[in-house]
Fold:
Amino acid sequence: MNATKITLDENELPKRWYNIQADLPTPLDPPLNPATKEPATPDDLSAIFPMSLIKQEMSTDRWITIPEEVRDIYKLWRPSPLYRALRLERALKTPARIYYKWEGVSPPGSHKPNTAVPQTYYNAKAGIERITTETGAGQWGSALSFATRLFDLECTIYMVRISYDQKPYRRVLMETWGGEVFASPSDKTECGRKFLAETPDTTGSLGMAISEAVEDAATHDNANYALGSVLNHVMLHQSIIGLEMKKQFEIAEESPDMMFGCVGGGSNFAGAVFPYIGDVLRGEVGRDGGDGGESGDGDRYPKIISCEPMSCPTLTKGAYAYDFGDAAQMTPLLKMYTLGYRFVPAGIHAGGLRYHGAAPLVSKLTHEGYMDAVAYKQTDVFKSALLFVRTEGFLLAPETAHCVHGVIEEALRCRKTGEEKVLFFCGSGHGDFDLTAYDDYLNGRIVDPGDPTDAIRESLSKLPKV
Amino acid sequence: MNATKITLDENELPKRWYNIQADLPTPLDPPLNPATKEPATPDDLSAIFPMSLIKQEMSTDRWITIPEEVRDIYKLWRPSPLYRALRLERALKTPARIYYKWEGVSPPGSHKPNTAVPQTYYNAKAGIERITTETGAGQWGSALSFATRLFDLECTIYMVRISYDQKPYRRVLMETWGGEVFASPSDKTECGRKFLAETPDTTGSLGMAISEAVEDAATHDNANYALGSVLNHVMLHQSIIGLEMKKQFEIAEESPDMMFGCVGGGSNFAGAVFPYIGDVLRGEVGRDGGDGGESGDGDRYPKIISCEPMSCPTLTKGAYAYDFGDAAQMTPLLKMYTLGYRFVPAGIHAGGLRYHGAAPLVSKLTHEGYMDAVAYKQTDVFKSALLFVRTEGFLLAPETAHCVHGVIEEALRCRKTGEEKVLFFCGSGHGDFDLTAYDDYLNGRIVDPGDPTDAIRESLSKLPKV
Structure:
């Protein structure tokens, strides 16, 4: 197509989420109770999650109806546009066609409200009055603060210290919607005080902040906890991205050959690609392990590539093993790619990608070869971010810039080979609150952290025994 | 309608701008040469504007074709959505129906690129290599930096000192697109050095920054100047807002009874309402001076209300007279509502509304009773802004919050009277870079400046003689 963007009317918003668990060749390894190491039961999780979400977490139903109240709120910004990056293509002089789904149009500016809204809805229905959470870059905390406000719930956010310091606007945004924000580790929780005693100068980590939020929820009856990534029900809710995209690519009469996404926990990319992987798992589209193949009716299985930072290379350098989701060993053990629950990545300007683990669903599909992964240097990522901003206009979050870098590298390869590939990336969020990072880049203050290999080896040597 | 928003496909983007000068009962009073006080000729303006824009400035053609290159860039974010503020209505328990056009979806986050893009296009076609401008809140400077980048032109921005200090992210945003930003008054221009010598501690004003940008352009052959509001060609370009809206209201099967907009120079509101006023000027829709009347075919002429800050009450307290557009008396004299070119408003958190004048077209239509105006206190405006953010989700620029306050006051009146009025406001921009202001409001640090009456009287006593 030669259109700049494909928009859908709000009446075309999907009515059901897609659950890839229905189509897995073998089921996920179950989460384990952190104390007994036995498979976690719904009751194990009910201290911090409502039963409706626990059921979604374990469901193998292929389609799950989106409640009308949730769709009504989605309509504030959804369906989100699918863009063709015509100006970026021209700047790269590439024969490739580059598309991106733009999730920056939501009020909090990212894909995160796609799950914050339903999670809040189900908690509100269960009578919960307050939701606790952690946030790294602030995208997730903003989304939950936004969502809880619309359902009149309170929200308590533990924000990773380095982001709290780097991004004061993100804190104010959460407070403007009514959320209460603490720098993590904080003195508000027992585990927070312990972290502070052990490492008073820590920049914090998502693992620590999760511990604090989980402890807060587990120790208060009227409160539950919400996680912005990793869990199966989060991937479920994010499938709205990919379901919209499929309609939009149909209108564009295109089909992606390669799909790129940034992966911290993995939810934005899972949301975009799981509906595509599902087609292959069900045998409706042919699969080939290489650059994509052709099925009988011409549909191609795209090559799917997770992009992550070299300083936190979960999928490319981690172990596929059971591990804790948090630093204080409070969460169930999840089978996933992990750098080890003790791993604290360097303080790069992409807080949303500074997580030691990855979603079990993304991990399993990567392990089984349905998805690939690649890690990039921070300076390369910012160079690509600047090229994107100066051609397409939209300011990207540094997290998102990771997959833009992947797309640009591939588009430049296509320039050499002459291949007219259709490249896609998931534009997970805008960078309005990341301008300190751009300022640093423009003034030569962005550097690449040291090699994390030794720290990873050390951390992986202390994985929990199961 | 009960939809949350009306979107249009990019193919429905209007192909022509609407020029209200074609329909004025009497022509505008001409701009005057500042030295001779005679009507300015195209040649007088050609030192800082390309001839194509000078022609648009003076044109009385009703429809002017939008160049394809400009429409292609508009498609990055246009047509912008028309929202129904269902959640705000519910919170206010009002029978009124509230609609708003959301211009915050553009890459720079406001309506300003609607004119920055065509202005840059015409300058590029004329062989200009650099564009100079001023910016208050930073919305206009961001838009011009964005637009010049897409046409590979350089951009020099004089940013009002108080905004430069309050909004570092705005500066970085402009720099990210490649613009060069100076705090104004600066030592880069002769008039800037003069302002600094006279008032070293000044917070700056749009009037001073305009002088600097005009001097810079006038003294460099390869440079032109661009203004983000006030001028007729800016109102022309912004008519894209109202032309889209008319299609969207038709789809919604609604017709606004009252329209509210924030007015600094007046361009966003002019863009929204001039196509409606044009219907009346041409006699296609009936007019009544009061709350709106009915024409033969049921179309109503809406009551149109400009909202401005009490600390810079141009339309409500200014004189309708010839005045300079800038502090250094360099621009042509324009017949407009003005507080006097020497007036420096208090440093409120709505930099875009801190201008001593108003667009000649908005001024004339206000003077002749086609538009009304009202001024609001800063604290009241922020209270309404917070209610909007906490119900509708989108963070508004403090400028935009002025008309939201007007709508909320009217909606509360409707609650008392039971009137099911259709209220509209122009959502001119987002507040992502205004979070310092929200932080101040949440922490009780927003105050109302003192009464400007004496300063206005003093300033008006020194209007130029013509």
Notes: The first helix of chain A runs from residue 42 to 45.
